[in-house]
Specification:
single chain; about 80 residues; alpha+beta; three-stranded mixed sheet; 3 strands
Length: about 80
Amino acid sequence: MMNLEDMKNRLKTRFLDAEVKLADMTGTGDHIFLEIQTSEFEGMPRIRQHQSVMAVFDEELKSGKLHAIQIQSKAK
């Protein structure tokens, strides 16, 4: 189970100018809906945007603390 505030802080540390919105989709803390907008995504294909977000939570995804992240991403 992940704390949404901790997740937001980690994303803002990795993507310094990011605007981030998070929601727990199931109430269990392991299925997360995430909206992120950052200038770092400028010119980056969507798959790479999502991969860079998922990399922030690689350990939690591999260990099962996070089961799924639904991502909406766009460049600023």
